[in-house]
Amino acid sequence: MQVKVKWIDGVSFVGESETGHAVVLDGAPENGGRNIGMRPMEMLLIGMGSCTAFDVVTILKKARQPIVDCVAEISAERADTIPKVFTKIHVHFVVTGEGLNESQVERAVKLSAEKYCSASIMLQKACEITHDFAIQAPSFE
């Protein structure tokens, strides 16, 4: 896998993937940024969250669970001193579907955390990562 990160100006960059997608990253204004893109550490959490959510959705679909939505809400704590690495990450899944089997959702979250999600398994080597989930019925508003 290869990516390219190109400096725009100040502390703004464009990241490009080998698959042809691009994203703008920027620093906080107090660090010389213009607030035109995500912070790099936000991007890291989003990457991990999307990786684990991908697994959960895929595992539940393979188990023929009636999933209609999955949201990974991620909170993280960082060290107070530089380098301000993540010290704790918590992933809360909100899985939506009528008649979802709780043990299947629990299994999907556990399999992602322990076997499939490359991003979270890699980050677990550096900080504590916890997971939980809630199941909700679809709303028909």
Automatic annotation (TrEMBL):
<protein>
    <submittedName>
        <fullName>Putative redox protein</fullName>
    </submittedName>
</protein>
<dbReference type="InterPro" id="IPR003718">
    <property type="entry name" value="OsmC/Ohr_fam"/>
</dbReference>
<dbReference type="InterPro" id="IPR036102">
    <property type="entry name" value="OsmC/Ohrsf"/>
</dbReference>
<dbReference type="Pfam" id="PF02566">
    <property type="entry name" value="OsmC"/>
</dbReference>
<dbReference type="InterPro" id="IPR015946">
    <property type="entry name" value="KH_dom-like_a/b"/>
</dbReference>
